[in-house]
Design brief:
The complex is a heterodimer of chains A (116) and B (318). Helix content of chain A is 28%, strand content 24%. With 116 residues, chain A is an alpha+beta fold. Chain A has a 4-stranded antiparallel sheet, with no helix packed on it. The N and C termini of chain A lie far apart (50 Å). In chain B, strand 1 and strand 2 form a beta hairpin. The termini of chain B are far apart. Classes of the chains: A alpha+beta (116), B alpha+beta (318). Strand 2 of chain A pairs antiparallel with strand 8 of chain B, so a sheet runs across the interface. Bound molecules: fe (ii) ion. The site of fe (ii) ion has 3 residues of chain B, from loops.
C-alpha cells in the first residue's frame, strides 16, 4: 500500500515537472510582438516620418497618444535599418470623383514588428 | 487687434488668416485673476478638495456630480443665443464679454451666435483614479461626426481658469488639421503627429478652436486639478466679412511665381501657404487649396489666390 502511494507521488511529481518544463520551453518559443506604426509624407519608404505609434508585447510598457513629440526615426527606411520588419503598408487609391480635394486620414501607413 | 469706435476689438486680417490656416487662436492670460477666482468659487473649487483621504473612483464621480448640481454654471438649452446664456454678474458672463474675446467671437461667428453646449472638464491627478483607463491619455479625435459643411464652421472656446503646467496634461492639438474630414475617434491610431502641441498656459487663457481640429486630453501627472471650460458656438449667419468692412479686391493680382524675390513675410498669402510639419507632400497641398477656398469665402473675394493654386486648376474651357 505504502509502495503504491510512493509511486503515485513520484509519478505526479514527474508529470508536474514535465508541464513546468513545457511552460519554460513555450516561454522561449512564444516570443512577443512589438509594433511600430509609421505615417510617412509620401508613398515611398524613404520619405519622412510625420506620425507614429508604438505598442509593446510587454504588458508593463504602454504606448500612449501624445507620449512623444519627436519621431523615433526621421525617415521610414531607418526603421528597417534598425531591425524592424515591415508587414503591412497602405495601398495607393484613386481619388473618388467629386471628392478629389477633400483631405482626411493620413494616407501612407506602414506597420512594422519586432519579435522579442 | 483693432479698436473700433464702439469699443469692439475685432480680429485683424492676419489673425483671421491665422485661424483659417491653423484652426485656432490663443489669447494668453486674457481673463484677469479676479474673474478666474470668481469662476473657481462659482464652480465650488476649493484647494482642499483634493486633500480628502477618500480617493476612490466613486468619490470622484460623486464630486463631479456635486459640482454639476451645485455650481453656478447654468443649464443652458441647446440653441440659446449666447447673449442670453449667462446671468449678469456671473464669471462666465464676464468671460464672454471680455472686449478682446467678444471681438474675436464676433469676427468669427458674428454677433448673434447660438450656444450649442458648454461643459466643465475636470481632470483629476491620475493617481486618484484606480481605473486603468483613466491613466491613459485620450486618443486624437475631432469633436464631431463627419461634418459636411465646407464653409460654415463652429468655434469652441476653451477657458482655463487656472494655469496649466506641463505635467498637467493640457489638451494636445494638431495645428492645421481642421480641414481633414474624419469621423471622431477613427483617428485615435495616430498617437503622435509631427508638430503636435500641448496646452501649457497661464491662468485666464482662452483658446478659440475651429470645431473640426484634431485633439485629445493628456493625463494629469501633477497634484492639482485641471479645469477647462468649453463653450461651443454656432453662427446664425453667413461667415462673410464679419470682422471687417473692407472691400476685397476680386481681381487677379498675382506676383511672379517661384522665380521671385521671395514671398512677403507675414502676408495673408504667406500665412495661408505655411505648411505644417505633418502635412503629406500631396494632401498638404490640398489643405492649402482648402485654406484659400475658405479665405475666398470669408472675404467674398472670389478671385483671391495664392501662388495660383486655384487659378491653375480652374482654367478649364470645356
Ligand atoms: Fe474632444
Amino acid at each position: 500500500m505504502k509502495k503504491m502511494y510512493t509511486s503515485i507521488l513520484v509519478k505526479s511529481k514527474t508529470i508536474a515537472l514535465f508541464f513546468w518544463n513545457i511552460k519554460v520551453i513555450l516561454n522561449i518559443i512564444m516570443k512577443k510582438q512589438d509594433i511600430l506604426i509609421l505615417y510617412l509624407s509620401n508613398s515611398s519608404l524613404e520619405s519622412n516620418v510625420i506620425g507614429w505609434a508604438r505598442h509593446y508585447g510587454n504588458k508593463k510598457k504602454i504606448g500612449m497618444p501624445g507620449d512623444n513629440d519627436s519621431p523615433p526615426y526621421e525617415r521610414g527606411i531607418e526603421a528597417i535599418h534598425d531591425g524592424w520588419r515591415l508587414f503591412q503598408s497602405s495601398q495607393l487609391e484613386q481619388h473618388a470623383k467629386g471628392d478629389e480635394y477633400r483631405t482626411g486620414y493620413l494616407k501612407y501607413e506602414f506597420f512594422f514588428e519586432k519579435i522579442k | 487687434m483693432k479698436k473700433r469706435k464702439n469699443n469692439n476689438f475685432l480680429l485683424t486680417d492676419n489673425q483671421m488668416a491665422e485661424f483659417v490656416s491653423k484652426g485656432y487662436l490663443i489669447f494668453d492670460n486674457i481673463i484677469d485673476n479676479k474673474i478666474n477666482k470668481k469662476f473657481l468659487s462659482e464652480i465650488g473649487h476649493t484647494s482642499t478638495s483634493l486633500n480628502k483621504k477618500n480617493t476612490d473612483q466613486a468619490w470622484l464621480a460623486e464630486h463631479y456630480n456635486e459640482i454639476m448640481k451645485t455650481s453656478k454654471i447654468p443649464l443652458v438649452k441647446a440653441g440659446t443665443p449666447l447673449k442670453k446664456a449667462y446671468k449678469k454678474n456671473s464669471a462666465l458672463n464676464d468671460v464672454i464679454n471680455n472686449p478682446v474675446l467678444s471681438g474675436a467671437i464676433k469676427s468669427l461667428v458674428g454677433d448673434k451666435p447660438k450656444l450649442d453646449h458648454h461643459f466643465l472638464h475636470i481632470t483629476f491627478p491620475s493617481k486618484y483614479y484606480h481605473d486603468a483607463n483613466q491613466k491613459i491619455s485620450q486618443g486624437n479625435h475631432n469633436d464631431c461626426v463627419i461634418d459636411p459643411r465646407e464653409k460654415t464652421f463652429d468655434i469652441q472656446l476653451f477657458y482655463f481658469p487656472t494655469a496649466v503646467e506641463k505635467n498637467m496634461g493640457g489638451t494636445r492639438y494638431i495645428p492645421g488639421s481642421h480641414f481633414r474630414m474624419v469621423n471622431e475617434m477613427a483617428i485615435a491610431r495616430y498617437h503622435n503627429i509631427r508638430g503636435q502641441k500641448h496646452v501649457v498656459c497661464p491662468a485666464g487663457t482662452v483658446i478659440i478652436f475651429h470645431h473640426n481640429i484634431w485633439h485629445g486630453a493628456g493625463i494629469n501627472n501633477s497634484k492639482k486639478i485641471r479645469y477647462g471650460f468649453k463653450i461651443r458656438l454656432m453662427p446664425t449667419q453667413k461667415q462673410v466679412k464679419l470682422w471687417t468692412k473692407k472691400t476685397y479686391k476680386n481681381n487677379h493680382d498675382e506676383e511672379a511665381l517661384y522665380w521671385n524675390r521671395g514671398i512677403e513675410k507675414n502676408s495673408i498669402k504667406e500665412i495661408l501657404q505655411k505648411t505644417e510639419p505633418w502635412f503629406e507632400a500631396d494632401s498638404g497641398r490640398l489643405d492649402i487649396l482648402n485654406r484659400i477656398r475658405l479665405w475666398r469665402h470669408i472675404t467674398n473675394d472670389k478671385n483671391f489666390d495664392a501662388a495660383y493654386w486655384l487659378t491653375r486648376i480652374e482654367n478649364d474651357y470645356n
